[in-house]
Amino acid sequence: RKTAPLPDDIRGMKGGTPIVSLTAYTTPMAKMMDGVCDFALVGDSVGMVLHGMPSTLGVTMEMMIMHGTAVARGLSKTMLVIDMPFGSYEESPQQAFGNAARLMRETGAAAVKLEGGQHMAETIGFLVRRGVPVMAHIGLTPQSINTLGGYKVQGRADQAKALMADATAVAKAGAFAVVLEKIPAKLADAITAQIDIPTIGIGASAGCDGQILVVDDMLGLFTAFKPKFVKRYGSLGEDGEAAIRTYAEEVRARSFPADTHVFSDKAPGN
Ligand code: KIV
Ligand code: NA
């Protein structure tokens, strides 16, 4: 395709070829996935992955805007979605609209993502009616880690009904897609069959309408820990460590820089 899909195009992929997505935080990473992924998410995981924060709770609007602007510069054929950070939308639909509009205006993102099910449905409807396409995010919602009591699987046993209700509530409110994070595969399949918007799985099911992973996780670049749902498709962290060690050895041995990396005193020439 020549241009990026729009939220409505992503919605239209329900039940078809799986939707492919990754997180992105920088221009070069965005360029790597441009035209390959259907959408890229500037996730608030940026706080943990790039800034060494212990959770996503410390991420600010300014950080999201800075990374969102960088990612936008690398995309022309992939849609940009940006996370609303903790504290920027929960207070009221009005607060959410002000911050969503700012994120879209300053980064060029086509849509925002926010965490929460039934309790965020009113806000989702408020945003959508005012021109802000919303991707919902239910199941394990990392911004609520302190009330959830850890990064555990959500929606098991007696929690399943509430999670199904969350999914139907965000779909009814007008979300164009919903991320399902760390829930039983059977429940993810039941939700996917039940609602008419695409489900984007992360630790959910191959039966979801799409998948997302944190790009630094799947490249093997973020190695502080590895959730079960992550598959490493590369080992850039190991490659990087090895490259840095080789560089250090060569500098200490004076074998870098070599003749090809230095300049003669004769101009013109290299
Ligand atoms: O912030 C993030 O990376 C996310 C994805 C894991 C869905 O919200
Ligand atoms: Na997130």
From TrEMBL:
<keyword id="KW-0460">Magnesium</keyword>
<dbReference type="InterPro" id="IPR040442">
    <property type="entry name" value="Pyrv_kinase-like_dom_sf"/>
</dbReference>
<dbReference type="InterPro" id="IPR003700">
    <property type="entry name" value="Pantoate_hydroxy_MeTrfase"/>
</dbReference>
<feature type="active site" description="Proton acceptor">
    <location>
        <position position="181"/>
    </location>
</feature>
<feature type="binding site">
    <location>
        <position position="115"/>
    </location>
    <ligand>
        <name>Mg(2+)</name>
    </ligand>
</feature>
<feature type="binding site">
    <location>
        <position position="83"/>
    </location>
    <ligand>
        <name>3-methyl-2-oxobutanoate</name>
    </ligand>
</feature>
<feature type="binding site">
    <location>
        <position position="83"/>
    </location>
    <ligand>
        <name>Mg(2+)</name>
    </ligand>
</feature>
<dbReference type="GO" id="GO:0003864">
    <property type="term" value="F:3-methyl-2-oxobutanoate hydroxymethyltransferase activity"/>
</dbReference>
<comment type="function">
    <text>Catalyzes the reversible reaction in which hydroxymethyl group from 5,10-methylenetetrahydrofolate is transferred onto alpha-ketoisovalerate to form ketopantoate.</text>
</comment>
<comment type="pathway">
    <text>Cofactor biosynthesis; (R)-pantothenate biosynthesis; (R)-pantoate from 3-methyl-2-oxobutanoate: step 1/2.</text>
</comment>
<keyword id="KW-0566">Pantothenate biosynthesis</keyword>
<feature type="binding site">
    <location>
        <begin position="44"/>
        <end position="45"/>
    </location>
    <ligand>
        <name>3-methyl-2-oxobutanoate</name>
    </ligand>
</feature>
<dbReference type="InterPro" id="IPR015813">
    <property type="entry name" value="Pyrv/PenolPyrv_kinase-like_dom"/>
</dbReference>
<protein>
    <recommendedName>
        <fullName>3-methyl-2-oxobutanoate hydroxymethyltransferase</fullName>
        <ecNumber>2.1.2.11</ecNumber>
    </recommendedName>
</protein>
<comment type="subunit">
    <text>Homodecamer; pentamer of dimers.</text>
</comment>
<keyword id="KW-0808">Transferase</keyword>
<dbReference type="GO" id="GO:0005737">
    <property type="term" value="C:cytoplasm"/>
</dbReference>
<comment type="similarity">
    <text>Belongs to the PanB family.</text>
</comment>
<feature type="binding site">
    <location>
        <position position="44"/>
    </location>
    <ligand>
        <name>Mg(2+)</name>
    </ligand>
</feature>
<feature type="binding site">
    <location>
        <position position="113"/>
    </location>
    <ligand>
        <name>3-methyl-2-oxobutanoate</name>
    </ligand>
</feature>
<dbReference type="Pfam" id="PF02548">
    <property type="entry name" value="Pantoate_transf"/>
</dbReference>
<dbReference type="GO" id="GO:0000287">
    <property type="term" value="F:magnesium ion binding"/>
</dbReference>
<keyword id="KW-0479">Metal-binding</keyword>
<keyword id="KW-0963">Cytoplasm</keyword>
<dbReference type="GO" id="GO:0015940">
    <property type="term" value="P:pantothenate biosynthetic process"/>
</dbReference>
